[in-house]
């Protein structure tokens, strides 16, 4: 399984951005998919997760502002980010749990910068 993220960029506070993550390879072995971010000098943190059955989980810091969606046929996920804040700045990574072992595959990061 390979993951390809896209959609990052520069935004002003209050703006919206949409990130997309496409998968390829053995996509039918994919279980939960998620978005993580890593701010400068900080640990990587989970932002949003969506399971194949539609269950979703969000970090408290983005609840009500970020929305994750999934296309189960394509095993792709999007992250709609609204009301962006400077503290949302970071490199965003998509990931997927694969197979019975649940091993994690990471996509390359995409930079999101929120600044006035």
Give me the secondary-structure topology.
Layout: E1 2-6, E2 9-11, E3 17-24, E4 30-38, E5 45-50, E6 56-58, E7 66-71, E8 76-81, E9 90-98, E10 103-106, E11 110-114
Parallel strand pairs: 2-11
Antiparallel strand pairs: 1-3, 3-8, 4-5, 4-9, 5-6, 7-8, 9-10, 9-11
- The Rg value, from CA coordinates, equals 13 Å
Unreliable stretches, pLDDT < 50, 5 or more residues? none
Separation of the first and last Cα atoms: 37 Å
Give the helix proportion (percent range): under 10%
* Number of DSSP E strands: 11
From N to C, what is the helix and strand string?
A: EEEEEEEEEEE
Mean pLDDT: 94
Main beta-sheet annotation: 7 strands, mixed
User: What is the quaternary state of this protein?
Assistant: single chain
Number of helices: 0
Outline:
globular
Beta-strand fraction estimate:
over 45%
Name the structural class: mainly beta
Overview of this protein structure:
There is one protein chain. The protein is mainly beta and 116 residues long. Helices cover 0% and strands 55% of the residues. It has no helices and eleven strands. The strands form two sheets. Strands 2, 4, 5, 6, 9, 10 and 11 form a seven-stranded mixed sheet that branches. The chain has a four-stranded antiparallel sheet with strand order 1-3-8-7, with no helix packed on it. β9 and β10 (103-106) form a beta hairpin. The mean pLDDT is 94.
